Amino acid sequence: MNNQYITKIVSKEEDDYDEELRFWISIKSTNQNDHNKVQHHPRTMKFCQTHSLIKKSTIKKMSIILIFMDYFKYCPWDGYRFSENDVQCFICRRPKYQLTSYIQEEQEQKKWEKILYEKQPYDDNYIDETFLQSVQKQDNTNNGPDYKQLISKTSDLIFAVNCVVFYLLSYFLMLHDMVNDQLQLYFWLAAAITCLIMFSVVKKMKTLEILSNFKSIGIYISILLLFAPVMQTVNQTYADNTIYVLTSVAILIYIFLKDYDYEKDFTELDVSQWASLVFSSLLASRLHNELQVFLMIFASNLLFIFVPILQRSIKQKYNSVFRVINLISTIGLGLSLLFFSYFLALLFFGCVFFITFVSPLQIIWLYQYKNTIRGPWDLPNVKQYD
Amino acid sequence: MVNICLICDFFYPRLGGVEMHIFQLGLCLMERGHKVIIITHKYDNRAGVRYMTNGLKVYYCPFVPAHEQVVLFTYMGSLALLRQILLREEIHVVHSHAATSFFGGELLLHAKSLGYKTVFTDHSLFAFNDAASFHVNKILKFILSEVDHAVSVSHISKENLSMRASLDPRNISVIPNAVDCSRFKPDPSKRYPLNTVNIVVISRLTFRKGVDLLVDVVPTICKRFPQVYFIIGGDGPKKKIIEESIRKHGLTDRVEMLGSVPGHKVREVLVRGHIFLNTSLTEAFCIAIVEAASCGLFVVSTNVGGVVEVLPKNMVNFAKPDPDDICEKLAVAIPIAKNVPSHQYHEQVAKMYSWHMVAERTETVYNKILSSPYPSILGRIKACQSNGPIFGLYLLILLIIDYIAIFILDLIFPFRNLSKPLKFNPEYRVNKEKFGDHQFKVN
């Protein structure tokens, strides 16, 4: 094929079809008036070579006809019909005489990666679709804790309140000399001994341990007896009103900050236990004689410091017994308060009712506002050494 | 040329990541032709106006730090002084750093009332579930309700900041920290002791830096690999725990405790090792690992926070914050530790992080906000209200007081009566000998 009419447009595939195209392109770009320079179509040439009987004049005619037929009427990719002045297909944008070419797709911009060590061809404030996908929001769609479970958990709180009320009741009796001092003494000693027996039974202690416990209690009682006069005089100068206010505050601290989960080891006194010591010593200063002071402090230590230890071991094994004791003590206290004033009994029952039935409802209501956001910035759970 | 004011509670003579960031950013911005001043509170014996390298002007303002080097947040106490400084230096942009620096936050609010553009950079990550985080986030939300643009040091930090302060993420740019690589050149000949694989740990020994993990990892690795030698630098409340653990396992000849390492000696310690171990529990952007990579050490780190985005995979091994996982990844790293291409790492890191790049990207932020419109007072009132119905009213009162105070200050100390500041001769940077500053280069 004569190369002087081949233009520089080259398509990618190397086919016979391309050769044909090149031929057609070359023909179209030349001056159409110059018929003498028309080349023979390669296929016709081949045809003629194979079929040598056809005359050369017919070959010439065939090629001329093919030229003027305007081979490229429709785009083979999408069927777009070329008009006369069209240079390229409107839809696929291929040139009219280069329909075998591949469309060169736009060079894809490099994907944004969440890295800092390379400068990426994006703005510094570019936002990807992965933005904030590592954040887990826990909206607590479940209804929160079970109502009945919460009610059963309030028994701890009721027990603490009962202890306080019982203590205050016995203090009141002592203050107004309604009950004999000796009776109170026997009562509290008996209570202490029963507590100790229960403790040893539940913990299955051996005789040696029980005896050593008795010994330590004996030492403790003697120390208290020694310090009773001191305790009486410590807060005597305070006015009555001060005593009542401080006592109420200390009782509130005791109830609110008490360790209901029994996590601590009982080797150190908690804030709540210090508060119990505080209010017992405050109240003891109003009493009349040393025996009463000793009794009140002994009672407070027993109720607020030693009974929780007992309570923990009982709760682990005899949970229902504990609940029954709770219930009986609540009712008994309420009824005994009736002797003194209706208002107090009402208040007591009202408190118990509120704590047991109304506050769980409040917790369940609050759960709808619980909103924890967790993400890659949270500190992981790591075992801590102290 | 933009006149920039950088504000933070934390600056020289206190040494740390934030302080370094501010200093280097100031220097590089000055090299690009802007004017930079820095405002902090006074340190012991360091008060008043000081000039640092190349004429970087630092105002050590007479406010006493209340707790952990942070000035007490009194809304009106700093207005008059700040106004005077900003007016006489003819500032255009006020840039505050660090979320726990309330001095910066307070001055950011005043700068908004005085009519300057504000930018805030966040350097740390905060969770949402702590009691401390609630309060810090609320205050941050208040301070950043009107900031023009925010900058964070990593992509996770950007997400964190946008959630904490309720900012539009299009207004937060990610500009990572950088490291001065010329100060952290590798030197494999300095690896000491010889014939062992040395693992270096340098951090403040606190809970947040994962010292509890380290206590578990050191004995396990020492037992498993007899050729390992640990070098632990740094001081803190948890130092005793590591010492106890070392004594308990009898590893005194395999672990070296260096105590507190001063800033200029860090490179000497780093260069002694083959592997750098980072066990921190939360990090926005860990500069320590970049320094270590620049010194040619292979890094093994926990995959928390923004650490994952900092270095490419061939330089780091990531582990979960679990002692077993860290031991596994160290076990993979120890055999290859001696063949690490230190100089190649250094060159790679030098290309990745440089302060000039940080300054350039910060400059684009400044140019962007300088062309944005100033908000009207009504716009600011609406922004106040967005903090909540009741808190918003309170903030509104503060805003009004602010404007009234500025008005009164304008009457008492008008602009034309302010003294002009001294200008540091910019020729100094170009020709130091002319001013008598001779540089002797001894390698």
From TrEMBL, chain A:
One of its GO terms (biological process) is GPI anchor biosynthetic process. The chain crosses the membrane at residues 157-173, 185-202, 214-232, 293-310, 322-340, 346-367. Pathway: Glycolipid biosynthesis; glycosylphosphatidylinositol-anchor biosynthesis. Its main location: membrane. It is found in: Membrane. One of its GO terms (cellular component) is glycosylphosphatidylinositol-N-acetylglucosaminyltransferase (GPI-GnT) complex. Keywords: GPI-anchor biosynthesis, Membrane, Transmembrane, Transmembrane helix. Belongs to the PIGC family. This is Phosphatidylinositol N-acetylglucosaminyltransferase. It comes from Paramecium octaurelia. The lineage of its organism: Eukaryota, Sar, Alveolata, Ciliophora, Intramacronucleata.
TrEMBL record, chain B:
Residues 41-130 form the PIGA GPI anchor biosynthesis domain. One of its GO terms (biological process) is GPI anchor biosynthetic process. It is an enzyme of class 2 (transferase). This is phosphatidylinositol N-acetylglucosaminyltransferase. Signal peptide: none annotated. Keywords: Glycosyltransferase, GPI-anchor biosynthesis, Membrane, Transferase, Transmembrane, Transmembrane helix. One of its GO terms (molecular function) is phosphatidylinositol N-acetylglucosaminyltransferase activity. The lineage of its organism: Eukaryota, Sar, Alveolata, Ciliophora, Intramacronucleata. GO terms for cellular component: glycosylphosphatidylinositol-N-acetylglucosaminyltransferase (GPI-GnT) complex. Pathway: Glycolipid biosynthesis; glycosylphosphatidylinositol-anchor biosynthesis. It comes from the Eukaryota. Its EC number is 2.4.1.198. Pfam families: Glycos_transf_1, PIGA. Residues 198-331 form the Glycosyl transferase family domain. InterPro entries: Glyco_trans_1, PIG-A/GPI3, PIGA_GPI_anchor_biosynthesis. The chain crosses the membrane at residues 391-413. It comes from Paramecium octaurelia.
